Amino acid sequence: MQDLILNGNVDLTITNERKIQESMINLNNDPYIEFKKFLTQHSFPFSLKMQDFQIHEKTINNINRIIEKDISSLKTFNSSTNDTISRIVTYIAMQKPGGTSNVK
Description:
104 residues; mainly alpha; 69% helix; extended
């Protein structure tokens, strides 16, 4: 897509889109079921064709990477603070939408 925008390479973009469509056709589940699962459970592009335990493991790894690398690059924290940040993120992630609203 970037090549299309920057260089106007339509042919490469069409080829790449066809590859994506072909990989979507080869889903293990019905595309409707897979898309519904994507929307209701995970909403990460990497979750297609993955088992629940794989998705959870990858999601936890991403969260840990954010806490350990991205947040730490903004400000230095000790391991105790990293643990607290992890607990806060876990708490927020487990809430229903609006569950942490400050309006309540």
